[in-house]
Amino acid sequence: MRTALGTDAVAAVGAAAFWWGTGQGGALTSEAARRLDIATAPCGLPDVTLRDQTGAETRM
Hints:
The chain is mainly alpha-helical. It is 52% helix and 10% strand. It has one domain. The chain has helices at 2-21, 30-40; strands at residues 49-51, 57-59. Strands 1-2 form a two-stranded antiparallel sheet. It starts with a helix and ends with a strand. The mean pLDDT is 85.
């Protein structure tokens, strides 16, 4: 009985660590976690000024 409880406790801690480490099950790799973070909270990009060969500037 003690062995079964110990095994269940270890399994529960392992499952909780896996759940926390994978972003609530949403990502198995750090790249997937990064993509998930960007998809849920996108950050803005600064304006960019482009200059063509004639010297005319265009803002994006």
